[in-house]
Amino acid sequence: DVVQTPPEILVSPENPVKLTCSHNSSRFDMIQWYQKSPSSTAIKLIGYVRFNSPTIEDSFTGHFSITGDGSKESVLHFVKLSLGEDTGVYYCTAKRRRENYLFLCDDLAPWGQGATKEIRGPVVEVLPPSEAELCKKKKKDNVTLLCVAKNFYPDHVYVSWEIDNDVKREKTKDVPIEKDGNYIISSRLRVPKKDWKSGKKFTCINCKNNNNKRRILQ
User: Fold this and answer.
1) Whole-prediction pTM
2) Which DSSP category does 153 fall into?
3) Among the residues of 77-218, which ranges form H helices?
4) SS3 at position 195
5) How far apart are CA 19 and CA 67, in angstroms?
6) CB 196, CB 87: distance < 8 Å
7) Domain Ig-like spans what residues (predicted)?
């Protein structure tokens, strides 16, 4: 179980504020902290601690700090309290973070607070090169494959590509964007036209919360 305390807190700006999140699972090595403000449907990642190494997202640097050990307990400190910006609901999750040569993905434990929105994996589609692109004769004879993952929540989805089971792009720089309360991410892969016409297998991999979705074009 993941436990977050206190369940509610009401303070004035001059008072120190901190939230604690703990779990009792030996499988997890990371605790993440999220913020949801009343004016937005988005749940934003504040930062996380993996074992005893904390990381704060750039947009929250100087505003929050995180201490503790991701394998058991973490504390979210409000360094600079602002009633307007900091009013909202805060969540924590505990997870195991795994990294390998291909992609990054996570095992997600239940939210520390009752989440107000369902966590959903992406719907993935891979589109082949257009007929117009295939018919063009260019100096650089490349074509474009497009991978689209949509309708997922929250925004922690990463994309990688394989060609015939070999890594082409390990983890793309593409980032999700919010659309109608959910998220969408797209990634393009440029390949030689001869590779496309040779019948090679092109795989788009989307990784979210230990739910790796693969879509293949051949």
Assistant:
1) 0.52
2) B
3) 83-86, 131-135, 193-197
4) helix
5) 11
6) no
7) 1-103, 122-204
Q: Where are the alpha helices (DSSP H) in 36-121?
A: 83-86
d(CA 133, CA 142): 9
Sign of CA dihedral 74, 79, 83, 85: negative
- Round to whole Å and give the CA distance between 167 and 107: 22
List the structure tokens of 80. Answer: 């600079």
Sign for the pseudo-dihedral over CA of 85, 88, 17, 62: negative
Give the SS3 label for residue 134.
Answer: helix
- The pLDDT tens digits along the chain (218 residues) read 788 988 888 777 777 889 999 998 888 888 989 888 888 777 888 999 989 999 998 889 988 999 999 999 999 999 877 767 788 888 888 887 643 322 233 344 444 544 445 556 788 888 899 888 888 877 678 899 999 888 887 777 778 888 887 877 656 677 788 888 788 888 999 888 888 888 888 888 877 544 455 555 65
Q: Which of 29, 28, 89, 37 is nearest to 59 (CA)?
A: 37
The two three-digit tokens of residue 86, written as one number = 């900091």
Instruction: Provide the CB-side half-sphere exposure for 135 (13 A, CA).
Output: 3
Q: Which of 13, 160, 38 is nearest to 89 (CA)?
A: 38
Say if CB 29 and CB 70 are below 8 A apart: yes
Check the CA dihedral 94-99-35-119 and report its sign: negative
